[in-house]
Amino acid sequence: MKYIFNFILIFMFNSALAANDTVVLEKAYNEPDDKDSLQRGARNFMNYCSGCHSLEYIRYSTIADGLGISEEELMQNLMFNAAKPFEKVRSSMPPEQASKWFGVAPPDLTLMARAKGTDYIFTFLKGFYIDPNSPTGVDNVVLEGTSMPHVLWELQGLKRPFEGLEEHSGDVDLEFLTTGKLSVEEYDQFIRDTVNFLEYVSEPIRSTRRNLGFWVLMFLFFFLMLSYSLKKEIWKDV
């Protein structure tokens, strides 16, 4: 029943995400096989995202094993609550409080990269701009009316639409009002690593599946050649 409920939540959230389909999404250009990037992305997620968002369908130990992180490093750098390594990655924020503060509970992000795509998430994390009419003080060119605050504003800085534009839409260009701790290139790499990690958790066995698939195809090809040779041998005197 719990999984059905989570599926419904993801479906409803995805429907909301489709609100602005005029946005030209930026390419994330993330590398799912880049283990260093994945480790940085795990660090980014645990430090900036896990307070509100969960990864309900993956365990800390699975992340550590897949990314080559020792249990000691996992406990010191990626786990900031009382959870055990074998437990699932759950948000530190109770859903009831999240609904009260944001109007809706932040969605689980385990399957978000597969549901919406890495380009969507990459563009979303770059698309916040100041909006005095929003309860959180910001809006997003990808998801207008988003309930999510700009939690990375100190890193990116604050943006606003070019002055003179009364209405905001997905194709509105943004300009920096204040600079952040990271340069534009550094921030792009920061969120690229984060998106990379989210793609990894959506399918942790991706690399194994692709490697196994190659050998399966090789076996089928060999079996085809063997079958053809056998067929010729059997029918050569007929």
From TrEMBL:
Q: Which UniProt keywords apply?
A: Heme, Iron, Membrane, Metal-binding, Transmembrane, Transmembrane helix
What are this entry's molecular-function GO terms? Answer: electron transfer activity; heme binding; metal ion binding
Coiled coil (residue ranges): none
Question: What GO CC terms are in its UniProt record?
Answer: membrane
Q: Where does the record say this protein resides?
A: Membrane
Query: What residue ranges are annotated as transmembrane?
Result: 212-230
Broad class of the protein's primary localization = membrane
Q: One Pfam family from the UniProt entry?
A: Cytochrom_C1
InterPro entries given in the database record: Cyt_c-like_dom_sf, Cyt_c1
Which named protein is this?
Cytochrome c domain-containing protein
Q: State the species of origin.
A: marine metagenome
